[in-house]
Amino acid sequence: MDLANLPGLGPKRLEKLNKSGLNSITDLLYNIPRTYLDQTKVSKIADLHDGDRAVVIGIITRAGIVKGRMSRFMAVLTDGTGEIQLLFFRGTRFIANKVKPGTRWLVSGVVGSYRGLQLVHPDMQPFDEGEAFNGQILPVYPISEICREAKMEQRFFRNLYKTIFNFPGLTLPNACPHELTDYLHFAPVMDNLRALHMPKDFDSIYKAKRELKILELLPFCLRMVKRRENQKIRGHERQIDLGNVMAAKARLPFQLTTGQDAALSTIIDGLNGKKQFHALLQGDVGCGKTVVAMLAIMAVCGAGEQCALMVPTDILARQHFKSLKPFFDAAGIRVHLLVGATPAAEKKVILGELQMGLCNVVIGTHALFSKDVYFAKLGFVIIDEQHRFGVSQREALLAKGDYPDMLVMSATPIPRSLAMTLYGDLKVISIKEKPAGRKPIKTRLVNAAKRESMKQFICKEAAGGNLCYWIASRVNADGSGASNSGSAAGSVGSSTNSAGFAGSSTDSAANDGNARSVDDIVNEMRSFIAAFGHTDANIARLKVAGVHGQMDDRERDEIIKRFAAGEIQILVATTVIEVGVNVPTANLMVIDQPDRFGLAQLHQLRGRVGRGNQEAWCFLMIPEGEAAETSMERLSQFAATEDGFEIAELDLKTRGAGNLEGNEQSGAWVFRWFDWIHDQELISQTLERADHILKDGSAFNETAKEKIQAWYNEKPSANEDGVH
Length: 724
Description:
Elements: H1 11-19, H2 25-30, E1 35-38, E2 53-66, E3 72-78, E4 83-88, H3 92-98, E5 104-113, E6 117-120, E7 123-126, E8 137-140, H4 145-149, H5 154-165, H6 178-183, H7 189-197, H8 202-233, H9 242-251, H10 258-271, E9 278-283, H11 289-301, E10 306-310, H12 314-330, E11 335-338, H13 344-356, E12 361-364, E13 378-383, H14 391-398, E14 405-410, H15 416-422, E15 427-431, E16 441-446, H16 451-463, E17 467-471, H17 509-512, H18 518-532, H19 537-540, E18 544-547, H20 553-564, E19 570-573, E20 586-592, H21 599-606, E21 616-621, H22 626-639, H23 644-655, H24 663-666, H25 681-695, H26 702-713
Parallel strand pairs: 4-6, 9-14, 9-15, 10-12, 10-13, 11-12, 13-14, 16-21, 17-19, 17-20, 18-19, 20-21
Antiparallel strand pairs: 1-8, 2-3, 2-5, 3-4, 5-6, 5-7
Helix pairs in contact: 7-8, 8-25, 9-11, 10-11
């Protein structure tokens, strides 16, 4: 049934729904209520006490923004029995435009007491004057501002869903097959959706939500369990060359940490087994994952097989090649570098040697999975910064061997809940130590008012030989070319827009158009140096340059090389330097408007300094105004720890799974109903269910098996597992 066929939906309303992302009956059915109003439990203000969780309906008598050290919006709500203050410290301008004297609201939250009763950042819904209470449980829907402008409020949507569910022959495309819901003792998906849109009691709401969450997670778990089972019947035996590994370890100019040794032993054991070995090696920036990977490569090459190390950027590939080649040469292992810029004649030689088995190891970028690349015996694939590659790209490289073993590496530690679901078919190996001699990076929050002092400090340090990164979130001064970071701005109420105002984000730097670009900061620093150069000749000699992802690769690499050589002392950059830039003499970093970045990304950026044995500093230049207020707690938590695993958990809580590793992977981790924070206990249960479903061969006939496999293999189509 088409949306246009629904009674009461004219062209204008249909257009508003489409603009709000509701393009079909299915979209509407999946647009489940964000909360419910229990009409039997509406409180009177006169009966409220400190600490009560209350639902109140009343009229705003006074409202406005109160100026002060921390501006806030304050309103007074009355229901005829008493008054209660409503306070908002974030998004005050947006709230002030909505909450006006004389308007009627349904307000819920935890009652506090400070010079009278108050609700701080309560959940708010406009309540129609004619809306009556009859003891029902009413769904409360997320409504876009576009729909509100068309007078499509709560009552409209409640009536719309009554119409939809009364329509004969209502079906859902691609719904979970009834054979599987019967096996799980779940209600059909349509019945659960009906329970959410037309609730009878809270027990049925809870049951419906839980079952929908499990069914949403189940396809991921089924695919992962199936891959895990396939690995048990794939793979081959090899004779690992431990002598090669021990000799290479002896040639290292340092001793492996306990964590590196343990990780290497686990990988060697896996490579020595009969089953296909797939593992995730994760650890903080600078923990030494690359040297572990190199030693594992030595073991496989010693068994007469070839290895491929794939990285996301040319500069990282060249860096690995330069640092690893001396060790491979000493071991008699032939290694080549293959990137997009490799000259045609040189590439032809490399491809020939790979195909004939004369080259043991190749280090490269996306060029490795090109159609003209053939291996004689590819046995081991290592993918560094694995989240930068799409599923099809990883598959293309793995397909060049006969089910080769695989090690994916990440400097962004994965929270346990994500690892269980998205990497459950991989053995997760973690390195939590840093190499000996590395000093902690001191992270400090700097108020925007101290920007001039910050510039002066940086210039004096740079003049003394200390190189500095200055991170910007935008490429261009006109606001285009934003860095791949997203906004971390909070919203009024809960993360699901619980204030009931569509689009109620704060006026953060991500939205206000005042973010400084790479060009802005380069010009700012050059002007500052010119002004101070009259009094300090060392500062006058400082060079500033900028790099970003829209530059020509060669130009960008040349600037970074000059920075590493000390010819440029202050490098202004976007997150393009997040991966693969290793300058041990750079021990200062300023991150402009850090509220624009996720904590995991800030941690990656911070890892560019402190790579030598000198003391390193990272300064977070917090923005002014409301953005500073909303970001302070999150950034303070970040500044207090260097533990990437702890930061990953914090990032998951504050930003969600979709932003942990940038836009490349976010599609794989975004769910409608399942919540990575509050529903973690469902993961292990759903994995167990998936295992039973695949192993219980007698439970389904062949037709049912085909339907179930078609269902879970198509969900979702993009970045289905984030692994291979």
